[in-house]
Design a protein that fits this description.
Two copies of one chain form a homodimer.
Chain A lengths: L5 H17 L9 H10 L16 E9 L4 E8 L10 E5 L8 H8 L3 E3 L6 E3 L9 E5 L9 E2 L10 H18 L7 E7 L2 H16 L8 E8 L5 H14 L5 H10 L10 H14 L17 H4 L24 H8 L3 H7 L20 H5 L9 H9 L3 E7 L7 H9 L5 E11 L7 E10 L2 E6 L6 H4 L1 H13 L12
Parallel strand pairs in A: 3-6, 3-8, 8-9, 9-10, 10-13
Antiparallel strand pairs in A: 1-2, 2-6, 2-7, 4-5, 11-12, 12-13
Helix pairs in contact in A: 1-2, 3-10, 4-5, 5-13, 6-7, 6-14, 7-8
Subunit structure (chains A, B): Carboxypeptidase II is a dimer, where each monomer is composed of two chains linked by a disulfide bond.
Pfam families (chains A, B): Peptidase_S10
EC number (chains A, B): 3.4.16.-
Chain lengths: 492, 492
């Protein structure tokens, strides 16, 4: 039974207040209500943000995607600085299912800020992707991060289909609130289980646009990283990768191959789950998302949590992670995003204290959503085929020290598309500016007809966390549609 | 034609001088000449050594192994401190073929000192293996490092057989010079191509000891790391590992499998060499000996060297290497060991300036030796079988981020022995003293009947360089014959 959407009401009230202050700057061709809501979403200042360098506007707030059920999705737009405009718009999605794009993408990967261990202050990420584009983070589906539903049952029957359709509805309404992005070059990107979300949402946008001469959502392509793509090939590749990296025994490798490869990745059989449990025990207390980096120390919330520490395709929990970067980032974000003043600044959880939909602690990932995930097709490769044929730009990247969706999984899945090769596997280089002789192999790449595969050397599951500089190089090349730079290639 | 052995003569002269000073301390049961030569070999002080902490005696010098040819092998003994005695004796050998144990084992891996970038000063390695044993480094065969021959043709027809026999001769004479090590527990260890040397020398010692009730060389076992073992299985595993780590294309993987797996690793066919060249080009300018660490920067001697930068089984040059550790260590050692005062302190190159055998610059590895390597059996697994049956302790370890002799190569080679499993694959832990809750996975291990396999997580080809603390834990467990510690295992 749909409850009342307190949040939407509260936002509406806020809008009225802000509107009075902001109406003077409304553009002539701008829908008045869109403008008012957009200005209500403007982030004036984030608690703890640095005094210098924040030269880009930000907006965040809710877009209702189902009035009846009371489902509203939370977004956070980090625009490019004025001198970089007009730049493309890029939607970023994290996976899980159940994990927040605010927690991961925005706060420890490609977002403008990173959170200090005090859980209170922020610093600028030198390699923030809004140096190259306007980045729109979305917590999806409802029940994830700050996104909520007033219909409790929604939390127990989420699945790929509704996630895609709600996300599309979000986009349609968001473009009304931000009409300046209509017709702008638009890309969708994400990682991990967003390997499902990204192509699925891209497909809807593509199909709705079909026959429209000048579509509002001017989708040019998509990019996914360490992406769940095709259960059979992903699993074959994952098990092979585990064995080759010395994480599991010969016997368990054989057992996994015998028990799992024809299962659904998201809904494995009990027999397959038992094989996974064996593999997890053999693997030990490493960070499967980054197998060579230290874990956040054992006294952390992760090991004392009620959630069993499992690495299985169902439940790619990114909260066990492991030292140039801080392996305890989730803890800092959990503190920061539960601060009332932070939520106020973000226009998030606006009914807090009023008995509203989000009367629970903000969490990086939702166990409820994850444990009750419904429909999940075994493959999205048919969507790749459709969208390659449509001429969309499609890039797939992989951090090569991830054991959750390892490189070998991605190689097998992409190979299954049988695409002709345009440029064979080659090392790409990170040529530091003004030091072109100091080139390092950033990873490897192969250009297929219709798809570009890029690996990032030494990066785990969250590529922009582990290799921020290389990730920004990757992002810029994707936006330009240019292959990754070979040796002595152009400096980015 | 054998030339005159200037070095031996010079040593003899030195002995007379030193003998006069040292004769007072000669032991009663000690052969007088052995004692004199030993005292002549005592290292008084190394140039640039730290003022504190050097509480262990060291000796170095030459042992002639063939008077006719004028072949003399250089050794460096780093004894354990007095309070750790009596401790076992461990011979350490580096591979190549052609690479110096002084350059690698002693100076950047398990040895007592590391060389600073000034090429002049030393600091103590906190995890030096002489904390647990008396370590004997040997430059082998003649022509490698400080070891020399007066018969130039020796440099062009070296091979496994003579290397083993010369090394045995070295040992026999060395024990006469150091009789306090007679009957002492003795182990042989090494890495890379020493995967051949170590079992081969162990086999000779074992066979010569057979039937002797109380052998002088009291060989208890051997240990090898990232070891060349069995060409067929090594190559199958190497190619699979390269592909799984994203270093090569699908096409090159297939080409290597079709072109190389039945070849000799040391003497590949032109067809196989062409496939290797393709793989090397695809791999790019990474450090194959440690695929996730930076290379010593591109202006280094490695890229300007006349030696083509190849990664092939023939020519496992450890001089291309790549940041908690210094990736340019070979450069520092090349400076340090070419200093005349260092050579004097080490009693090395004693005929320098006299037109003696070593009238060339000391180098970490010898191209001549490497490029002209002779006999090299395709497998040493038959020796494993013989020595397992003999009850010797045999440990095999592998740094799991090495692409030269990767973990997968070692797994396939060991699997080919078909040994029964005693303890299945499990993660071993590095429990830091007094902080047992801060345990990290050091790697994985499997105990077979007669052989223990241990991996070291995140270590490259030179395990003690990349993971010095974990390497010392490994070494101590090997010496005790105790399996690697499981979670909550005993602190070392």
């Amino acid at each position: 039974m749909p409850g009342r959407n307190f949040a939407t009401t509260a936002v509406a009230i806020a809008v009225v207040v802000v509107a009075a202050l902001a109406s003077a700057s409304a553009g002539a061709d701008d829908d008045e209500q869109g403008h008012l809501r957009r200005e209500a979403d403007r982030i004036v200042r984030l608690p703890g943000q640095p005094d210098d360098g924040v030269d880009f506007p930000m907006y965040s707030g809710y877009v209702t995607v189902d009035e009846g059920a009371g489902r509203a999705l939370f977004y956070w737009l980090q625009e490019a600085a004025a001198e970089a405009q007009p730049a493309p718009l890029v939607l970023w999605l994290n996976g899980g299912p159940g994990c927040s794009s605010v927690a991961y993408g925005a706060s420890e990967e490609l977002g403008a800020f990173r959170i200090r261990p005090d859980g209170a202050t922020l610093f600028l990420n030198a390699y923030r992707w809004n140096r190259a584009a306007n980045i729109l983070f979305l917590d999806s589906p409802a029940g994830v991060g700050f996104s909520y539903t007033n219909t409790t049952s929604d939390l127990y029957d989420s699945g790929d289909r509704r996630t895609a359709h709600d996300s599309y509805k979000f986009l349609a309404r968001w473009f009304e609130r931000f009409p300046q992005y209509k017709y702008r070059d638009f890309y969708i990107a994400g990682e991990s289980y967003a390997g499902h979300y990204v192509p699925q949402l891209s497909q809807i946008v593509y199909r709705k646009n079909k026959g429209v001469e000048k579509p509002i959502m001017n989708l040019k392509g998509f990019m996914v990283g360490n992406a769940v793509t095709d259960d059979y090939h992903d699993q074959v590749g994952t098990f092979e990768s585990w064995w080759n990296h010395g994480l599991i025994s010969d016997a368990t490798y054989r057992l996994l191959d015998a028990s799992c490869v024809h299962d659904s990745g998201e809904h494995p059989s009990p027999r397959c789950n038992a094989a996974y449990d064996k593999a997890t025990a053999e693997q030990g207390d490493i960070d499967p998302y980054s197998i060579y980096t230290p874990t956040c120390n054992q006294t952390s919330t992760s090991s004392s949590s009620s959630t069993p520490r499992r690495m299985r395709l169902k439940g790619r929990y990114p909260w066990m992670r492991g030292s140039s970067y801080d392996p305890c980032t989730e803890r800092h974000s959990t503190v920061y995003y539960n601060r009332p003043e932070v939520q106020r600044a973000l226009h998030a959880n606006v009914t807090a204290g009023a008995g509203g939909a989000m009367n629970y602690t903000w969490a990086t990932c939702s166990d409820t959503i994850n444990n009750n995930w419904g429909d999940s097709p075994k493959s999205v490769l048919h969507i790749y085929k459709e969208l390659i044929a449509a001429g969309l730009r499609i890039w797939v990247f992989s951090g090569d020290t991830d054991a959750v969706v390892p490189l070998t999984a991605t190689r097998y899945s992409i190979d299954a598309l049988n695409l002709p090769t345009v440029v064979s596997w080659y090392p790409w280089y990170d040529a530091k500016e003004q030091q072109k002789q100091q080139q390092e192999v950033g990873g490897w790449s192969q250009v297929y007809e219709g798809l570009t595969l890029v690996t990032v050397r030494g990066a785990g599951h969250e590529v922009p966390l582990h290799r921020p500089r290389q990730a920004l190089i990757l992002f810029r090349h994707f936006l330009r549609g240019k292959p990754m730079p070979p040796k002595n290639g152009t400096v980015v």
